[in-house]
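Internal tracking record. Fields below are filled automatically when a chain is submitted to the structure queue. Please do not edit lines marked as system-generated. If the sequence contains nonstandard residues, flag them in the REMARKS field before resubmitting.
Queue: standard
Priority: normal
Entity type: single polypeptide chain
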Amino acid sequence: MGTLDGKVALVTGGSRGIGRGIAERLGRDGAVVAVAFARETAAAEEVVERIRKDGGRAFAVQAELGEHGDARALWDAFDARVERPGVDIIVNNAAVGRSSDLESLTEDEFDRLFAVNVRAPFFVVQQGLGRLRDGGRVINISSGAARLALPEIMAYGATKGALDTFTLNLAKQLGPRGITVNSVAPGIVDTDTNAGWLRGNPEAQAQAASQSALGRIGRPEDIAGVVSFLASDDARWVTGRVVDVTGGAGL
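SYSTEM-GENERATED OUTPUT FOLLOWS
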């Protein structure tokens, strides 16, 4: 038996990168996984198929986050596909992964960052509360950029700081229902988001690896394992925390 047998999980941004790693891990651990995606239908269906090949259960749900009404559209799509009403685990992973520096950032980019990275998780949870079962889990994917000074992506870091504040307050509010709420904060991870500057660039790879006390670049499965723990009953006494999964960056 898996640690998440009988649970239903929603993973936003589940079609690639860290979200894909999380979706596949939760599926292997027994959860029925709703793989939420914005546009990449083929990628989402590939994740669903991979989970099913591993013996799990999954389905894809489409909704473009960052627009007004996005949370309602996401939950409508979820309700139409889920076999048993309700959800046990919400993973807010979808995000705009980088930002311009202070001099280059436009108001439109700023608004888009906060719409996807902060507003969307807020309303996904708000409108999911009636579906979220007592004893459930909310796991927000934050970033080491919320605690490390990285001026070149400060707007992105600010969104993740806001997400951590959301985590803290939500944990207090939902505690009486036995629902835990935590943030998971990755560092540099080898994903498509970072591919442009990281892959095929030995110098960039060496620099990125040197930032970790463990001397390597993070992988999606490094993050997924921590998320799986927080989603399990073993983490029932952990809430309102930011779990650092940067490999010891900045030590």
